[in-house]
């Protein structure tokens, strides 16, 4: 029994952001498990069995992949972006923790990828150029009170903020609630960007301010970045302004 | 005048973590600017002029690169990791902001890379599997009071914390000061990892707790991760324990 499990980040979309490590590993595994739209990015090849699953069944997907690895298969579990950022690495470890003890003997490796947050930041300039935090607005697995507490703490620390999972069909309200909290705790002039599907065909970027932002611009494919008090716009002669959170912090207090 | 400037992330070290986008662009520019150890990672080739500079002269490096681009060259500025995370993207935008207006007409593009934080997280399992923040402990450009405020806010929000630039020869004390603050605001049982030079030959990982950690394990090449209240260890039959910050948050309050 020489099975192994690789938790692989595919990056935000285009092949130019897939690491050689991930591409090389995907070319050699026997089985790949993932949310169907991520599997659709992979070239079919003989000897590769694909196991597509729905969104929001991460634990079941992880369990199926671990069972296959325990049966001696060489298995990949894929995530968009980075598997360590609101993605499959945690789900796989949770499944091992609560699973049969033999799963703890498996060779498990996490292969990092470019995250949606980094792709968005690159497109926008340097919005995360100083201290920042990443918060998922999904309350499927954590209480909204915690999310609110974290938004308030992020403002207390004057972090730039990347908001993951800002809205879905089942949760259209949370990004509105989050913006209400943010507007109570951060100046309205803070730059805000809605970066949708960065690197894909339907990429769309909108830059505004916290006071003027329309939260309904955010959907499942959007990464929202809220600037810190020092974040400012850099106007250019061609193209939209860039966001800059400078390295220097001039203490007002 | 058709100069362009690319701000390129080389990833944490090994070529297997360099994106195809970055590799492709580096194969086509005429000039590359960077801190000498990062330039040393690039294969020499005819037609590529390398401009090595020292650490801590980011603005001067950015200005030189922008001047070359304005003179019609195709220029890369390289960072280790991701250029958007405590690296050259912000410095380049700052230089444009305070530079001649013609620099605002240049084609400037940021190419994301795998960050040190992600490489460390991948090696450790899933320590950043829920909300997290990234804080640089360098007070070269920001007051220590702000860093302390951000550490306290990160604890108030119960974020997992990635600490960049924990220590250098000139700043051996800050990681000790930071741990003192963290120990006042977070339970001592929180898992802590020192991930040094991940992906490179001298990689070294140490897993401990906030109460027991020896801050002097951190140096310039170390990324320190401090777990949240929910972060726990996952023991395995082979190898060191993994860190897991689960997706689910059981609210104590």
SSE blueprint:
2 copies of one chain form a homodimer.
Chain A (H helix, E strand, L loop, with lengths): L3 E6 L10 H7 L4 E5 H4 L9 E5 L4 H13 L3 E6 L8 H10 L9 E5 L4 H9 E2 L5 E5 L7 H13 L3 E5 L9 H12 L5 E6 L7 E6 L12 E5 L5 E3 L7 E3 L9
Parallel strand pairs in A: 1-4, 1-5, 2-3, 2-4, 6-13, 7-8
Antiparallel strand pairs in A: 8-11, 9-10, 9-11, 12-13
Helix pairs in contact in A: 3-4, 6-7
Your description of this structure?
- Two copies of one chain form a homodimer.
- Chain A is built from seven helices and 13 strands.
- Chain A has 253 residues and is an alpha/beta fold.
- In chain A, strands 3-2-4-1-5 form a five-stranded parallel beta sheet, sandwiched between helices. A five-stranded mixed beta sheet of chain A has the order 7-8-11-9-10, with helices on both faces. Chain A has a three-stranded mixed beta sheet with strand order 6-13-12.
- The longest helix of chain A has 13 residues, at 58-70.
- At the A-B interface, helix 1, helix 4, strand 5, helix 5 and strand 6 of A face helix 1, helix 4, strand 5, helix 5 and strand 6 of B.
- Strand 7 (132-136) of chain A pairs antiparallel with strand 7 of chain B.
